[in-house]
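Worked example 2:
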Amino acid sequence: MKKEKLVKKNDHLFIEIEKELWLIDTGSPASFGTHSINIGGKDFNIPQSFMGMLDTDYIREQTKVDCAGLIGSDILNRFDFIFDLQNEEITLSTDELSMEGNYISLGNVMGCCPIAIQVEVEQNRHTFLLDTGAAISYFAGIRIDHFDSLGRFHDFHPGNGDFETDMYLVPVSIGDVKLNLRGGTLPSAMEMQIGMLGAHGIIGNELMDNRKVGYFPRRKMLVL
C-alpha cells in the first residue's frame, strides 16, 4: 500500500509522483507521458503519445496545468484506489483495499474497462460512464434544462476538440447516495459515440469532491 498526493487543479484531478503531476483519467484506455513512471512501487514504460495523436503538450494546453502526462485505465486497472480529495491524499495498492460506504457495481464497456455505472435521474435509471478525466458530468438524451442554470462551461475532448455547453445543477442518485452534480450536454458526435457504448452520459471527477471514494476496478466496485 502506498499513499501519494492527490490534487485538483482547474477542475482536473492529478496524482503527484516525485513532484510531478499526472492527470488521472479512467476514461482513457491508455497512458502516455514525457517519460516512464513508477506508481505504487511498479515501473511502467509508457509511450510519449496516444496513437501518435495525443501527447502531454496537448494535455497541458487544455488543462492549463504543467503535468508530466496522463494515467489511463491500462495502469489504473492494476490497482485498488481510495481517493480522499479533502485531505489531498490517494491510497493505492496491488492488494485489495477496503473502506466503509455504499458499494456500487461497475460494468464493463465493450468487454473491457469497468467504468459503466448505474445513475438515477428523476427516478429513471441510466447507464453512465465513470470518467475522472471529465471536469463535469454530461447527459445524453436526458433533459436537464429545467434544473437550476449555472451558466456556460468550456470543455475539451481528445479527438473531438473544444466545445461549450450550458451547465445545470442536476440531482442524481448513485446507489443510495444522492448528489448534486454540475451537468451539461455533449456535441452530437460525442453523444453518438457514448450511445454506441450503451451509455446515456458521463459522470465526471466532481464525484470525488467532499467525500472519500473507493475505486476497485479489478473487482468492478466503486465505494461512496
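The radius of gyration is 17 Å. The chain has a mean pLDDT of 93.
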